Fold these 2 entries.
Entry 1:
Amino acid sequence: MKFLLPTVAAALTLVALPTLVHAEEAQALSVNLGAVSDYRYRGISQTRLKPALQGGADYALGRGFYVGTWLSTIRWIRDWGTDSGVDTGRANLEWDLYAGHKGELGPGLSYDVGVLAYLYPGNHYGRLPGAANANTTELDGALSFGVATLKYSHAVTHLFGTDKSKNSGYLEAAASFDLGSGFSVTPHIGHQLVAHNGNYSSTDYSLTAAKDFNGLVLSVALVGADTKSIAGAKAYASPVDANKDLGKFGVVLGLKKTF
């Protein structure tokens, strides 16, 4: 938690530099800050079902190219270290860096391709038996037609600390329905396959309703994941509380302000 504000400030400064040079393109920079009652990623809680602070920035470079950064508080790396008695580092933060290109392929059809690095400053997750460093890089590509989007992400490193998991893949589908007056509904489903680890897989799902109050977005999401893929056992029980299923069905509240 204590690393969040200085890291956000540093990240936003880096992203904002082009704007300082080209003031006439200031509208290309978008900054967001917010909080959620539980940070779920691919259906799995990253915060032991507890709240998280989040923030990020996006910068449009022109001609379809973009860069961005996003940050969130997390708990899972320290939790696994606490359970095993191994010092996995004071990694309380996820810091994402990404870049890509998007454009039109035809009437109503668009694409978005890019690279995304998930960084966990100070993590020593690889000290755990059979684990690897938690830092992860994925290449991704998406096709959108109308309200629907199909996206595939491919890991070119170990996947979130899982040893020998390079070439893991995540396929997801979503749709965004604008109901008017700032209201929207977004259904989502995704499937994660972890390579070279007994063909472990997990399917997650969510349904999010949101209301935009002139840049301040309030959201309510129903979210969960099927984590019973390993011999019928819960694959994502909390390492510090075996009674907590980190992929269980739940309600996540969110509040985000975009500037």
Entry 2:
Amino acid sequence: GLRLALSQIGALPYLLCMKREQTDIFISGGGVAGLAAAVVFGTAGFRVICVDPAPPIVDGRDAGADLRTTAFLQPARDLLGDAGLWDTWADQAMALNVMRIVDAAQMPPVIRDFDSADIGDQPFGWNLRNWVLRRDMITRLSELETVDFRTGVGFRGMVAREDTALVTMTDRTQVEARLVIGADGRDSPVRAGAGIGAKTTHYGQKALTFAVTHTQPHQNISTEIHRSGGPFTLVPLPDHEGQPCSAVVWMTDGAEAERVMALETHAFNAAATTRSADHYGPLQIVTHRQSWPIISRIADRLDAPRTALMAEAAHVMPPIGAQGLNTSLADVQTLRDLAVAEPDQLGSRAMLAKYNRARHADIKLRAAGISMLNRTSQAGNPLMQALRARGVGVIHDIKPVRTALMKLGLGR
């Protein structure tokens, strides 16, 4: 006991000299969702510190660049427009006017187009490269005097008090914040520190991401092709060196994904073209390839004292239907609206309970729907494939059902 007491006394000068800052909101995570939250709250006038252990890669040619793309649906576009971001992307965002479903397990293939004109005069969404998003969000953050974005440092732990949370970062500096937002990924340190559990589902799949050129124009159509193992999705991008270009998300069984990832370029192009059912003609890869395992993970709740979870810290879903980041931005919008409506209640138990009620049920509903679609797309049994194709036809061909599902997908 005496030795412990002496050690604590010896540490007092260090503790007293520790740098302690104050802010309204501390955000753990500098991915696209975390940066979007920092921009949105900074634009709304809140003081924000956003941290990420890794420096952002803001050039698609650099090793480790995030080559994935994100389709921003209409509500997300509106949120980012309010935050002063959307005009930056006007000449880079590729409109998604039609969502095409192709069941290539059937002969002839079953093809149905879901047209945004059925529910309004705007596209479903707009597709952008993730590394471009990060680059431009960081530029926007530098314009906001109330936002401090730091890399090379992350969340270490926190102590929640009645009026603030005391956050310790990995460099042992401390910040007092009224609200701590965990936007730090599927293995979120903030979620673990808050003692919030999560339910995880494994599908035995991996997703491969890359970009390709093709001979036939995409005509602003996002095309999802089903056989077995998972969907093969081509999402429109601007032309690449004069050729039509699309981003690809190829979901397939884990062993097959590893086999395909190991193919040399010519064989990989041939495999991708075959899997696409030759829908746009021969595919030619124009980026390096990335892969990651497909899981679903839903946090048991989104709130804890002085803490809110969002994005993949709160929900991970298979990349189907552009629900991932758009669900994350719905989290940001809900938090923003609650904070702006009652700024004196920022981070309070009442505010965070409202946030949990507003978002958790919707997240679970969307996750269940995406999981069902993914299981259906994995099916290799001919009977299940026939039923899948029949289901797509029924959903599309009954207009009230078609338009209701399109609006649900948009979050309207």
